[in-house]
């Protein structure tokens, strides 16, 4: 029997509203609390680690609808809808601690980026008389949830429990995507694993070269603007945002390994020069056909990528360049090894990323597949990249650093060590730290420009 009316909303009398509980108040937990409060929900209880209680309590003084509790036991005992917003690495231990205190008949969700350990923890530690309807907002805490995909997973629950979760989250303005736990991990791996690996490898390569890439005139065009801004955006986040998906999602680990192999094998063909031209062209044309449907682009659909003129508005080179113009005709052609390796990786694993574009694309994935499409669907651009890879040594040292970085990240993930992952991430992050504030603003504006453009063309 439903415990709440099917049309319950923030406008309902307070006695008829569910108590919404958040366990974990990191960046995403705070974003959810803010959205719930601004929507007008009246009974929101939150908690973080006990030693953060006083500071958390002080930060929510006077915030409408939100009460800070000391621990997850109090949140679990009093809440009708409970969301665990904790790192995937710790979901088992946190649910083991607080799950048994869950209120009878409550609906429980998790906001983790990888669902296999979440599912295991919920099934192991939650009482049989509570329901599981999980979720995942496929964007970061600094991106508006409006129009973004929000995955809902009805795992162990009646229809009314799913309706309740839909009602609670409706104020986000997100687009619901209904998946199983297993399908969620497949889709998120297909849309995020290689994307993250590419940008992490770029950052590590540039940091190893002790080079801000936009300052020497090589990375100041449209595609380069996307590379630099999104790389900085990723490293300005917390390491655990990416570590959980990479290490705990078995589909992601497979893809990251293949990405490193693709980068290595393409680089070896690059070093062969003229002898490597025929096999490199054949390999990349096969990858293009497998992922994008052939030279003519397969299905007729509007490209994702904006014009280079628009993207150049977001170039860091405009304020930090050492004199190189934003579109210098003397800038050397780029092999775009990261893009070549990514599409080659997808082709080898028979992944069709465009199938997930409308289903569950994150803003970063939308941009990255957009620039891949921009490169691979243009015979002239792809030919230029191949020729640069084979015959222009200008980027060769950067490409070498990229291959080393990609293999290093793959090995790190294969070891399954969060501490090793954190160390690699933080070391690169420290190098780019001085540029995060400006890059975050530019990257956010660039993402918004692409989202606005997509809405205009819808």
Automatic annotation (TrEMBL):
- Prephenate/arogenate dehydrogenase domain segment(s): 18-302
GO MF entry, a single one: prephenate dehydrogenase (NAD+) activity
Which PROSITE patterns has this protein been placed in?
PDH_ADH
Q: Which GO terms describe its biological process?
A: tyrosine biosynthetic process
Q: Which InterPro entries match?
A: 6-PGluconate_DH-like_C_sf (IPR008927), NAD(P)-bd_dom_sf (IPR036291), P5C_Rdtase_cat_N (IPR028939), Preph/Arog_dehydrog (IPR050812), Prephen_DH (IPR003099), Prephenate_DH_fun (IPR012385)
UniProt keyword list: Amino-acid biosynthesis, Aromatic amino acid biosynthesis, NADP, Oxidoreductase, Tyrosine biosynthesis
Look up the record and name the pathway of this protein. Amino-acid biosynthesis; L-tyrosine biosynthesis; (4-hydroxyphenyl)pyruvate from prephenate (NADP(+) route): step 1/1
Q: Which reaction does it catalyse?
A: prephenate + NADP(+) = 3-(4-hydroxyphenyl)pyruvate + CO2 + NADPH
EC numbers: 1.3.1.13
Q: Which SUPFAM superfamilies match?
A: 6-phosphogluconate dehydrogenase C-terminal domain-like, NAD(P)-binding Rossmann-fold domains
| Coiled coil regions in record | none
Specify the superkingdom.
Eukaryota
Q: Which family does it belong to?
A: Belongs to the prephenate/arogenate dehydrogenase family.
What is the name listed in the Swiss-Prot or TrEMBL entry for this protein? Prephenate dehydrogenase [NADP(+)]
UniProt organism field: Athelia psychrophila
